[in-house]
Structures are given as C-alpha cells and as structure tokens.
Amino acid sequence: MEDTDFIESDVRLFYEILSHENESEIRLINVGVYPIVKIVKGVEKFVSVAREYNDKSNVYTVLRERRPNFKGSARAEDIIKVQIIALDFDPIREKEYPSNDDELKRAVDVATKIAEDFEKKGFLMPHIAATGNGAALYFKIEAIPITSDSRTYITELLQRFEEYVRSEYKALLHKNEVRLDNMYDLPRIGRVIGTKNIKGTETKDRPHRVSRFLYVNTPLRNDKNLFDFIKSLSKKPYVILEEMVSYEPLKLSKKPPSSQQSLHSEQKMASTTEQTLIFEGSPVYPMQPIPYFGEVLVGNWIWEYKVDGFRLQIIKNDGKIYYFGRRLEKNPDWTEKLNKVIPFESFRNLPDKSMLDAELYSTIGRRGVPSVFANNGKAAPIIYVFDVIFYAGTFVGNLPLSKRKEMLNSIEFLPPIFVLPYFKVENLENHLKEAISKGFEGIVIKELNSKYEVGFDAPIATQWWRKIKPK
C-alpha cells in the first residue's frame, strides 16, 4: 500500500512521460531558502530523491532534455531537446495560501475541458494531473532538437502556443477564475507528480495536497501532429542563421538611376566617420533609415522586417535595465513602466554597460503598445532587437554591421526579447510581399559594411539604411 503523502507509482509514471535520456535535474524548493539541486540518472535514483525530500521541500524537475554530463542547474543554452510541453493552470486565489477544494476543482475542470477539446481536434489527449493547488496538462511529442540557431525560434513557438490557449479559452478561464501560467521557457521546471505540494500556509480548508495523475493516455505515445500545429501559430518568421552567413556583392536595378540617386561603390560611406564615445548610461539619438527610390545597390545588402512599433533603446547599466524612446527631446523614459512587465531575467546574458537598438511591439500589434505601458493586461510586450551600440562598456558603432549582427546573435535573450532576423537581398519586390503577408509594415535594407552613427542633437539619417513600404 502506497504512502498517502507520496505516490511512487505516479512519480515513476511521470519520469516515464518525461522520457529523459540524460541526467534529470531535481530542484528542491522552500520559500526563503536557496534551492537544492540534485542531478540524478535513471528512474530509481529519481524516485529515491523525490521520496527523501517529499513533504520537506517542494520537489520539481527540469522538464526538457538537458545536455549530457552537465552537473549544474540548467539554463536555456543547456537544453538540447523539447520532448514535453506542459500547460499549468492555477486558480486565482489569495496569495500565500493553498487552494481550497472549490478552487482546485475549477482548475481541474478547465484543464480537463481543454484536454478533451484537443482530442476532439485530432490530437492525442494530453495527460492530466492535479498539482496540489491547480492542474497541469502534459503533451508528449516527438523530440524537437535544440541548437543555438533554433533556440529562440522554439521558445517563441512555445510562447505562441500558450497565447493560443489563453485566447481560445479566454471565456472558460475567466468564468472559472483560472489563469494559465507561463511554461514556455526551455529550462522550465514542473512539480514531480506524486509528491506533496507544500506551497503556502496550510489551513483547515486549504490543506497541502499530494499531486497525482487524474488521467494518463496509455500506452504512452508521442503526438506526431501537435508541433506542426504549434508552428502554424507563429506569425513572426525566424530563420536558421546558417542561411545568412555569406554575402556576395550584388547590383539590383530595373532602371538606370539618376546621378543623385546612384550609390557608387567608390563613394565613401556616410557612416565611416570614426566616433570615440564613452559609455555614460544615457540614451542617444538612434540612427534612422531614409526612403528607397530604386537606386543601384552596390555592396553587401541585407533586409529585415520593418516592425510597426515604437523605437526603443535598451540600456543595461549597473545591473539594471533602462528603456527609452527615440524622441529624446520629449524625455521618453519608459523604464518604470516597462520594468513592470518585462522580467530582468530576459537580459541576464547581456553584459553590463551595453546599449541595444530595438522596436517595442505587442501581442496584438502596434495598437496594443499603449496597453503595455498601462500594464492593464490587454497586450503583452514583444521586443525585437536589431542592433547593438555599446557592448560591455565599449562603443561598437565603428564596427561594420556584419560584426554587430554577429555580436547581437551571440547574446542569448529570453522572451519577450527576440533578435530580429535578417536575410540576403535577392529580390526586393518579393521580400516586400513576404513582409506584408506576414503582417509587417514593410522592410528595411542595410549595407553590411555600414557603421552606426550616433547623433548628439538629433537622429542621423543614413543612406546605408533604407526603408521600403507599399506604395
């Protein structure tokens, strides 16, 4: 007979659902105490550690596959596969206390309804668990390999899936006063099902409960269709960086340009002026593109999607993140407002004393950006970073754009921060059509040898950045 505070069969089943090929990371968490991390290999050790710490700590595990022989606590770069997708539902209740029976039932009912709907849509019905205070769904999928090039893309897809569920079941969640927690980040942890949830202050009608499976789809199988569905939800295109590594000089023109319009290769770039700048932690006037009129393009040109948002400077200084708009004469300090909705953790891998050029967008487009500032929950922020001005206290604007792009893509951001992808210019008409079809405002073309000129009294417009929008 199993311990009523520890369900070993469910712990074993949970390990089997996770399908970890390498070591598993168990995190033992108590409020106010730094987590204990145990790296274990195999189901017996997994069960042993879970049993040892059950009812003493909240027992969690990193859900996704970690790189082999890694002894530390997993970060995004340590995750090598996504083989499980979790949705975690919590009832809205008074903080610091467990759920009562009614609140728990509402969360379970919501999770069950959504699970059944997925089955009706032709997917495998996910496994359902009561986590003690709420409910969780576990979708076991064909393993998706993670590389340095695809990590941001996969994270964005998982985030999109959660946004889809929130939107599709908005009325159901609202009616039952249940929220869907964020589980999309790659090193996300989840409660080990079968262990006791001891979060919050226990009372008579709000007890600590053992987590347990309510439904298991046996025999265990991988859903072969779910991830294709998730990919279809993304409206923001991403590319594998290996497709963007080489650029040959090219000339594109359908008609001879005028002498004023022609960009001759022997011209000295306007942005070649050497600037010696010292990082002061203050915003600068960002460089601006000018319209494109059909000129001959000589050199190595790339194109990016033109995001219709608010231009944004991001500064990391002395361990803090600061946000500023581009119109400095109006003192657009958005730091306090954006720090409420954008976690500092998103920039944990950005060196201190760095400055980024970016665009602030939202989950419902440009019209949702004011809602982001208002913190009213109608829209969540999305930030596309496309250039770096200072890096670790050094001005890098004198480096060619190609080097700045390499530097930017070496930084591992976490959502809602995304590095804007770029592509080799081949056919501007087709590039513009693609951008518009995906909901962007247009495109911006940039020369890979161009430098970044900082304005002191006003933004500097450069001929080496050109914007193209539909006529």
From TrEMBL:
InterPro entries: ATP-dep_DNA_ligase, DNA_ligase_ATP-dep_cent
Keywords of the record: Ligase
Highest taxon in the source lineage: Bacteria
Pfam family, one: DNA_ligase_A_M
Gene3D superfamilies assigned: DNA ligase/mRNA capping enzyme
GO biological process terms held by the UniProt record: DNA recombination; DNA repair
A GO molecular-function annotation: DNA ligase (ATP) activity
Keyword Ligase: yes
Every ATP-dependent DNA ligase family profile domain range: 374-471
Similarity comment: Belongs to the ATP-dependent DNA ligase family.
Name this protein carries in UniProt: ATP-dependent DNA ligase family profile domain-containing protein
Organism: Caldisericum exile (strain DSM 21853 / NBRC 104410 / AZM16c01)
